[in-house]
Amino acid sequence: MIRTPVLVGLGAMVPPRVVDNEELSQRLDTDDHWIRTRTGITRRHWAGPGTATGDLAVTAAERALRSAGGGPVDMLILATSTPDHPMPATAPGVAARLGLGPIAAFDVSVACAGFVYALATAAGAIAAGIAERVVVVGADIWSTRLNPQDRTTAVIFGDGAGAMVLRAGAPDEPGALAGFDLGGDGTFKDLALVPGGGSRGRSEPDGAGKPDGTGEPDGMGEAGGIGEADEYVTMRGKEIFTHAVHRMGESSAQLLKKIGWSASDIDWVAAHQANVRILHTVAGLLGIDRARVLIHLDRVGNTSAASIPLALTDAAAHGRLAPGQRVLMTAFGGGLSWGSAALTWPPIQVSDVAA
């Protein structure tokens, strides 16, 4: 029998603090209308002092395990680009706090595409017989990496975590993941970047990690210079938009062809929640009605690796997802990186609503 990952549990978590567009417009050159019309976001959740990525990941995983009815776990994979520390990985601490024992636990860092990559990694471990039951978590606290004066990033990102529990099963079971498509192109790495904090910056005393290695500010805006500004995320929004639409559309089409599904077979698209215009454009490229695209970013913003499981948890908790429906997941992030996955929705109980 082909060992296939089957979804059996789902959970999510966002911090309690709500930051609406009005609050941001009081200190940025923007307003609610500008933000909503360009992104579709009305509010987002930001973590408060003392809350780290691992804290959100623990709660989301606890809820996913409760949704799955408990049971032993062999592996935990955490997709994040905002780990608690540069070293060690955040996942082992999350597994320990969950009381999962001395299991394999590690981080996957693929920016906003991280959750799809983590799902594919879990699928490989299950197919190879390395694990029977895997917790996959996507969690990020990007509010700690935002330049408070940069409206191109400060209005977009929110904090959150989402988790799935997968078990080994058969390909014809409800909840079975039908396939994956992954891709990346490092020649465009500077389009979305945190310049500082890594070995590149520390190895160049004059450059402090500038993308071009010259020591001159590159894409940093008014923040510029060295030091704290290098820890902020920078984005070239228009170029990111173009690549996101193209890559998610292409990846989704390739996946559907690979598994023998057509666009008309798709009941729901759970795409990375970056921008509502991106979501609608991708749906249009695939020939899928935009009414079948799950939208959660209006309430939580771009939650990076957490966005797909957050959107699915919200839809499941509100009864929008029904057993037997076919769901397409697709994501795009820095790297550049992208990926898609598909599954048939299982009979699953989700009671915790994130936002």
TrEMBL record:
Comment text on domains: The last Arg residue of the ACP-binding site is essential for the weak association between ACP/AcpP and FabH.
Pfam families: ACP_syn_III, ACP_syn_III_C
This protein's pathway: Lipid metabolism; fatty acid biosynthesis
Active site: 112, 272, 302
CDD domains in the cross-refs: KAS_III (cd00830)
Keyword Lipoprotein part of the UniProt annotation: no
Its biological purpose: Catalyzes the condensation reaction of fatty acid synthesis by the addition to an acyl acceptor of two carbons from malonyl-ACP. Catalyzes the first condensation reaction which initiates fatty acid synthesis and may therefore play a role in governing the total rate of fatty acid production. Possesses both acetoacetyl-ACP synthase and acetyl transacylase activities. Its substrate specificity determines the biosynthesis of branched-chain and/or straight-chain of fatty acids.
HAMAP family found in the cross-reference section: FabH (MF_01815)
InterPro entries named among the record's database cross-references: ACP_syn_III_C (IPR013747), ACP_syn_III_N (IPR013751), FabH (IPR004655), Thiolase-like (IPR016039)
Biased composition (Gly residues): 210-226
EC assignment: 2.3.1.180
Top EC class, one word: transferase
Region: ACP-binding, residue numbers: 273-277
Subunit and partners: Homodimer.
Beta-ketoacyl-[acyl-carrier-protein] synthase III N-terminal domain mapped to chain residues: 106-186
Subcellular locations according to the entry: Cytoplasm
Keywords: Acyltransferase, Cytoplasm, Fatty acid biosynthesis, Fatty acid metabolism, Lipid biosynthesis, Lipid metabolism, Multifunctional enzyme, Transferase
Family listed: Belongs to the thiolase-like superfamily. FabH family.
Organism whose genome encodes this protein: Streptomyces katsurahamanus
Top-level taxonomic group: Bacteria
Presence of the UniProt keyword Kinase in the record: no
Protein name: Beta-ketoacyl-[acyl-carrier-protein] synthase III
Swiss-Prot/TrEMBL catalytic activity: malonyl-[ACP] + acetyl-CoA + H(+) = 3-oxobutanoyl-[ACP] + CO2 + CoA
Annotated region described as Disordered, given as residue ranges: 194-226
Domain (Beta-ketoacyl-[acyl-carrier-protein] synthase III C-terminal): residue spans on this chain: 256-345
